Amino acid sequence: AVARQPAGSVRVHPSMNTTLDLIAAWHESPREAARMLMQERALGPALLILLMTIIGMHAGGLLLLGPSAKAAPIVLVAGGTARWIGAIIALAILAAGVHFFAEMLGGAGRATDLFAWFCLASQPFMLLLPVGLIARALPAGGPILFAGAAFVIFLRTVWLQWRGVEELYALPPGRARAAWALPFVAGGGLAGVTVLLGVIALLALAAA
To answer: What is the mean pLDDT of residues 166-192?
Structure first.
């Protein structure tokens, strides 16, 4: 729950309190963060956290570029906003797919809570900001360090997304991971069938 501000203290907007509470709960106990998402309907704060993550990640990439990023402030705003919107769309599609398969596998939850969780699960990418600072000081191995850190953070984010499916849908680990993976399998299968049909259509036209 959101803490009450004592009399005479600086008033903080409730959404900011919820955002800070979510970040604290996330690092202390993912299960508590899941409970907050289900009770508080904290979609707005989750989107704010995603925005902070995207800005940090984008800034880390700009730091890695060094002097070549001459228009850093403009690129940070424009590029960060574009990535934020792209991340919202991608996570919304993923959440919808995982929600569908999670319910098929016996889970019960809300797609909006799962989407908010996926926004929270992006937090580790904030670490790319300090990684970018370190990589900038290593001209030779900087890009390799940055790419390696990004890959490790990606794996951590995937694990956190699995935990979210477990907690929000009350599924055992195996089913939760299957529900997370099935949208990718279905999407890959659909893409494969589309390509195959396209090839068959082209061969039919060539033979006509």
So the answer is: 87
